[in-house]
Amino acid sequence: MSAPSEVRTDSLLVRAMRRRPVPTTPVWFMRQAGRSLPEYRALRTEVGMLEACTRPDLVTEITLQPVRRHRVDAAILFSDIVLPLRAAGVDLDIVAGVGPVVAAPVRSAADVAALPALDAGQIGFIDEAVRSLVGELGPTPLIGFAGAPFTLASYLVEGGPSKDHARTKALMHGEPELWHALLAHLAGVTTTFLRVQAAAGASALQLFDSWAGALSAADYATYVLPHSRAVLGALADTGVPLVHFGVGTGELLRLLGEAGADVVGVDWRVPLDEASRRIGPDRAVQGNLDPALLRAGWPVVEREVRRVLAEGRAAPGHVFNLGHGVPPETDPDVLTRVVELVHSVPRD
Amino acid sequence: MSAPSEVRTDSLLVRAMRRRPVPTTPVWFMRQAGRSLPEYRALRTEVGMLEACTRPDLVTEITLQPVRRHRVDAAILFSDIVLPLRAAGVDLDIVAGVGPVVAAPVRSAADVAALPALDAGQIGFIDEAVRSLVGELGPTPLIGFAGAPFTLASYLVEGGPSKDHARTKALMHGEPELWHALLAHLAGVTTTFLRVQAAAGASALQLFDSWAGALSAADYATYVLPHSRAVLGALADTGVPLVHFGVGTGELLRLLGEAGADVVGVDWRVPLDEASRRIGPDRAVQGNLDPALLRAGWPVVEREVRRVLAEGRAAPGHVFNLGHGVPPETDPDVLTRVVELVHSVPRD
Predict the structure, then answer these.
(1) I need a labelling partner for B285 at 20 to 30 A (CA). Which of A9, A315, B178, B192 fits?
(2) A243: distance to nearest CA of chain B, Å?
(3) What are the sequence ranges of the domains in chain A?
(4) What is the interface pTM, i.e. ipTM, of the complex?
């Protein structure tokens, strides 16, 4: 094992994720790379979202920007949830102000059968971006990233973002065999996408199930959990810690832990001590500062950061983060101050 | 007390809300009056939303439509959450495809001080609509309706609908005295709006806190609960059962019960037996069929209706409903079949 790799394995981030003692709590922010940073907005003025995600030079630069600026304890690969589908050959685009739009929604057995698999050879640009990043980052670990099968399925079935996921839920309940075939396929796509990132040197992997919180625990357990578990199980031999996260998942925290991740992400609705009780002692937690409060002025932010850190001490491992992504309107200086504050508080 | 009033007090709905034995479970649907009905869409082609809510003839007709069609056990006053603000004199409109838009958002102490109170004399049209409806409905009870102080505050502070309620949360945490002054004022508006409905003959009142699920339990308890409790407390002497509901409130169910309602509404994420455990034995429950499943085909709908009824037996009282409003795309015939099915299953 090379020296930089050893350094990354011994990073604050990986140690906290492994529930090992750390002097201070590691901190990064979901969507730290992106619209809250002027240097990102400047780069993106003439480049579409999906193009930005597929050019290794841009992925590297955008991923590094928040590390340089905020001195966070991890980079997170700049990517998009639907990117592996597009790389596999699904006709989709990201439309500004709308989100991902799928040209031909997937709703029949024939549609599912026609879905292309993802071959590692189709994401050479991810391999290249991760290797470039690992070189640039030195001792700072890179977190790989992919959307979970349920969230990918919702985009495919609805044809785009949906508030109520009605077509997705109709397929799930009305044609469970077809549903499971679809999710099994997507689990394969997600697994390939994440394995390439681990092989190229990512120090941890986050499986992001954006929409899981739209489901009851019973539906999640029956229709989703087996497929997220398949992804996480297929990544166990990579040896890197695995994070699983969704929003609005208070009812699902125990199940998210059972999916096989080392770390369960928690939004702002459930305090970390209570979340850790639900998830159990064998998992670290990540979260849960309310991103909306980043605009409430420093005294409020400081009080909330200290509260999250205090409640996080009840968990066997804690990675400081927001309860959801950085809102685009966030003042980046507030994030930098949050990092400094988190680093100033002793943990173990 | 007049004969029709006695009949309404002894209705299936009120008995279930009072946790008294009922032969079958009463059923109505949030947003049963509205866009899912072709007869509603026909009426609304040339009338704006706020105009429709302020014309007693239209309110009466729109409120009666789903009762005629589905034979539900209750009517719910056709209204809009922001209507009492508009009636009090706040400059706002409902913009198609957007929602309520407030001309001058409320963010400073001067803004709060300038907010008009609502006088019962300003909502004579509500008094008239309710009296007309009570006459038309005969033995079928009418449920009165208003938005809760927090949800009204979010519209006023944000200036319209918001995904993350960032300005609202910033005000709440950053200027708690101003926040409490705002919510106390809005509690007065809501109380007046609901008292007029009770005085005109409504058989029950629902306080709807659309956005409460965006809050952690700690924030809800500190910044919202006292004001919802003030509203419900001020309505206790009306003698009609009170319902309190929000979406995504798994973490808040116990607190929603403590606000003083007789019935707590539950969305589709928490099964009614578990919800009733959290809420406690002194409250009935209402909900929790997943509205998205109304489009999943009858076998799925039937299975889910039977599951909700079975789980509802664990609660001391159960009013069948959806976990949120009727989606506009719903086939109304499915709702009619749901009513027939609910009525075919014995309860006590």
Answers:
(1) B192
(2) 23
(3) 6-344
(4) 0.93
